[in-house]
Automatic annotation (TrEMBL):
Keywords: NAD, Oxidoreductase. This is UDP-glucose 6-dehydrogenase. Gene3D superfamilies: Cytochrome c1, transmembrane anchor, C-terminal, NAD(P)-binding Rossmann-like Domain. Its EC number is 1.1.1.22. It comes from Chaetoceros tenuissimus. Belongs to the UDP-glucose/GDP-mannose dehydrogenase family. Pathway: Nucleotide-sugar biosynthesis; UDP-alpha-D-glucuronate biosynthesis; UDP-alpha-D-glucuronate from UDP-alpha-D-glucose: step 1/1. NAD(+) binds at residues 13-18, 38, 91-95, 132-133, 166, 277-280, 347. One of its GO terms (molecular function) is UDP-glucose 6-dehydrogenase activity. It catalyses: UDP-alpha-D-glucose + 2 NAD(+) + H2O = UDP-alpha-D-glucuronate + 2 NADH + 3 H(+). Residues 333-451 form the UDP-glucose/GDP-mannose dehydrogenase C-terminal domain.
Length: 475
């Protein structure tokens, strides 16, 4: 080990998890050398500029603090693994699209490939940390691949799941609720866990660093995401009931969330949850339960995903129903395409499903999102829905990406708010109303607008779990 650094880390995978996590470790631990490597040269090149490949508030400042000091980005995967004491595996593990477990199991191909590369190129002992969300017992697969090396090297495998949420990643990493480290309970395993814990202890209080066995750690990540997603699906199921009965879902969230035993977070009814984790992790849990013959448990968790699918579909069906049962040829403005605010990430975004449904109905769709790139919309739609301008040339003409919200709304029949970007709250809705076809509809899929004010302007407003004042005399 060089005198300059106490520990050397290599992180395989420079994506939404690897990039921000390593940047924060480097910022917080000047005596730890951190190098993030990736197969994708373009991705690495972008990390080495001020046009980072992902949008995350505060990330650029953190990167600039440490880049060139003790934070590096490189495609020299072998060289960086060789230098490292600790190698993080932080690669994508998407849901399988074919073969055994298709549509449910996560594909750990990339993790296994990383383990094979580590085994092949290493010349010294390593601690290998599984950071990507993986099916329970993936560490066992990694361990076995690593053990097959014939160089007599010792590899300790740890699980250290990431709990950051996109859009708030820097805060989540700088002040996490907890850091979880799972490892073997052997003396070598405990020593490896302690070495990783001592890196985090540079800025995180010891009582927040939990150590467990490997399987508990892997499983905790799936369970945490399943519980969070379950809360969103639970409140979304109530939003449907509210729209039928005249109750207001925000009032219910407030009343229910004030019970300390329940808590108020993740009770915001919406057009549905998206993102790369919730659905993938629940399906993973479902597959795991099925594998062990626990069919009732599998069905219980599967219902959370089904409810989310229902919520997304219910939203687009309501739009069509309210607009006189037809949107054919109508201009519809979609404000927000990212799966949540403060990110440009579109994986599993509910907007994509609404756009797909409206396209199938023959609408002309104009999308505005402050961070989403058109090519990312298409690549995610091709991956998840199997349609793209290549397979369906009419899609390109039917969907316009607008430079700003006003251009997207000009002349449209309806506006749908699908991401809760702050800037949508302060748009000039009088101006938007004047530019639209009448009757002008607003469908608020995030409940972020002042609905009474919009109605005063003249809009017909429909929101999630909010009673329609025209439908209930007593409101
Ligand atoms: C999630 C977990 O929160 C994080 O701990 C884990 O590491 C990765 O998965 P992320 O997917 O980035 O993070 O965002 P999150 O804030 O959890 O939101 C997920 C989805 O749920 C978004 O589409 C969001 O809009 C939606 N959501 C969230 C709601 O619809 N209502 C809520 O009350 C909260
Ligand atoms: P996540 O949200 O889990 O971080 P991303 O897709 O944003 O997922 O990032 C994963 C990154 O891992 C991608 O940039 C991809 O190129 C990289 N990657 C995948 N396989 C490997 C590998 N074998 N070695 C190095 N990097 C890899």
């Amino acid at each position: 080990m060089s005198d300059e650094y106490d520990v050397k880390i290599c992180c395989m995978g420079a994506g939404y998890v690897g990039g921000p996590t390593m940047a924060v470790i480097a910022k917080m631990c000047p005596r730890v050398r951190v190098c993030v490597v990736d197969l994708n040269q373009k991705q690495i090149d972008a990390w080495n500029t001020d046009e980072l490949p992902i949008y995350e508030p505060g990330l650029l400042d953190v990167v600039k603090t440490a880049r060139g000091r003790n934070l590096f980005f490189s495609t020299d995967i072998s060289g960086e693994i060789q230098k490292a004491d600790i190698v993080f595996i932080s690669v994508n593990t998407p849901t399988k699209t074919q073969g055994i477990g298709a549509g449910r199991a996560a594909n750990i191909k990339n993790c296994e490939l990383c383990a094979r590369t580590i085994a092949e190129v290493s010349t010294t002992d390593k601690i290998v940390v599984e950071k990507s969300t993986v099916p329970v017992r993936t560490a066992e697969a990694i361990r076995r691949v690593l053990k097959c090396n014939d160089k007599g090297l010792n590899f300790q495998v740890l699980s250290n799941p990431e709990f950051l949420a996109e859009g708030t990643a820097i805060d989540d990493l700088e002040s996490p609720d907890r850091v979880l480290i799972g490892g073997s309970q052997s003396p070598e395993g405990l020593a490896a866990a302690e070495k990783l814990a001592s890196v985090y202890a540079n800025w995180i209080p010891r009582e927040r660093i939990l150590t467990t066995n490997l399987w508990s750690s892997e499983c905790s990540k799936l369970v945490a995401n399943a519980f969070l997603a379950q809360r969103v699906s639970s409140i979304n199921s109530i939003s449907a009931l509210c729209e039928s009965t005249g109750a207001d879902v925000s009032e219910i969230s407030r009343a229910v969330g004030m019970d300390d035993r329940i808590g108020k977070r993740f009770l915001q009814a919406s057009v549905g949850f998206g993102g790369s984790c919730f659905q993938k992790d629940i399906l993973n849990l479902v597959y795991l339960c099925e594998t062990y013959g626990l069919d009732e448990c599998a069905e219980y968790w599967n219902q959370v995903v089904k409810m989310n699918d229902y919520q997304k579909k219910r939203f687009s069906e309501k739009m069509v129903a309210k607009m006189f049962n037809t949107v054919t040829g109508k201009k519809i403005s979609i404000l927000g395409y990212a799966f949540k605010k403060d990110t440009g990430d579109v994986r599993e975004t509910p907007s994509m499903f609404v756009v797909k449904d409206l396209y199938a109905e023959g609408a002309r769709i104009h999308v505005y999102d402050p961070q989403v790139k058109r090519e990312d919309m298409w690549s995610e739609m091709a991956y998840t829905c199997g349609i793209s301008p290549d397979t369906d040339p009419k899609l390109d003409a039917a969907v316009t990406t607008s430079p700003d919200a006003y251009a997207a709304c000009e002349g449209s029949h309806s506006v749908a708010i699908l991401t809760e970007w702050d800037e949508f709250k302060t748009l000039d809705y009088e101006k938007i109303y004047k530019s639209m076809s009448k009757p002008a509809f607003i469908f608020d899929g995030r409940n972020i607008l002042d609905h009474d004010k919009l109605r005063e302007i003249g809009f017909e407003v429909h929101a999630i779990g909010k009673p329609d004042p025209n439908a209930f005399d007593d409101l």
